[in-house]
């Protein structure tokens, strides 16, 4: 099965990490979306890649200083297009409601949480509780560059499939030890500098392999021919229909 995963939703057609971007993935017959999850000052879990508001909203400052009631005053869409004026930063609760409603599978990337151990624990506890809302028929992967977080999530929710993320320059010889320590079923390596030999090493450990971020169809075909299971992409709508099999 060759799987397309809409990176931050259909992020080339709608503002990234918004409910509109996630809904568009389904419109283009893509079952899987990837999103990023972080935590606000009051413990609310939200979908956001950055820990600042500057790039993807009409406000400035740190994400972690916000409370849930602040979200309704933040425009997370007009930076992308006037069509998305007043798009909101989604909560994880609203994300899961949408996934259940339109039958989306989720790759939730837990951000490393730059505000310290206290909020990291609250982030882990919050995601554990939130995932109980997800329809059991939906597929789920929890990924992170923070292997301490993955280890703790696997310990508390052992049936949840987890994925270790690696940048090209951090994919050292200890990758296998990290995978085993986290109890990961998936490895998510960066597309950059990834070779067929590396793919075969991952496969020899019976790992599922999803590669980020692939926006070239020729490269995607090469990776699939090497045996990767999925790719994260910003341009899922440009892929042939054989890769887009929404149910």
Automatic annotation (TrEMBL):
For this protein, the record's SUPFAM superfamilies field holds:
PLC-like phosphodiesterases
A GO molecular function for this record? phosphoric diester hydrolase activity
Superkingdom, natural source: Bacteria
**Which InterPro entries has this protein been placed in?**
GP_PDE_dom, PLC-like_Pdiesterase_TIM-brl
Q: Name one GO biological process term.
A: lipid metabolic process
Q: Which residues form the GP-PDE domain?
A: 2-243
Q: Membrane-crossing residues?
A: none
Q: Which residues form a coiled coil?
A: none
**What PROSITE patterns is this protein classified in?**
GP_PDE
State the name under which the record lists this protein.
Glycerophosphoryl diester phosphodiesterase
Q: Which organism is it from?
A: Salmonella enterica (Salmonella choleraesuis)
Organism lineage string: Bacteria, Pseudomonadati, Pseudomonadota, Gammaproteobacteria, Enterobacterales
